């Protein structure tokens, strides 16, 4: 399978939404078309500094997606590129789609002079971690989430 990566385009709405719904299902998130639509708006318009990439096969069918955004790194006085979401359709796993998306993220980061491409994944996501271990170094950092406080 020949894979090409490009920025999302308006015509990608339906297939991108299907892929993103698959991503949400994989991570056992609620089936919420409104959240999918909101995320599409962000990645397709660049809102909140986000940008969307898609992996397409030789038939121009979308087989994967990556959602990216920039973040400041005060400790190093640099900018990094955060990979919020990476997902490939089950049929496209092992075809190089994930690798192509990671390589494009790395190229975007390099072109902008970023110091790192960073992401998190579930500790039990062995398939993704196998891919990630070939392209990046796992860090010793532990992630925390804190709910916003009411005022």
Automatic annotation (TrEMBL):
SUPFAM superfamilies: Acyl-CoA N-acyltransferases (Nat)
Keyword Acyltransferase set for record: yes
Protein keywords: Acyltransferase, Transferase
InterPro entries: Acyl_CoA_acyltransferase, Diverse_Substrate_AcTransf, GNAT_dom
Pfam family, one: Acetyltransf_1
Keyword Cell membrane (UniProt): no
Name of this chain's protein: GNAT family N-acetyltransferase
Organism encoding this protein: Microbacterium candidum
Source lineage: Bacteria, Bacillati, Actinomycetota, Actinomycetes, Micrococcales
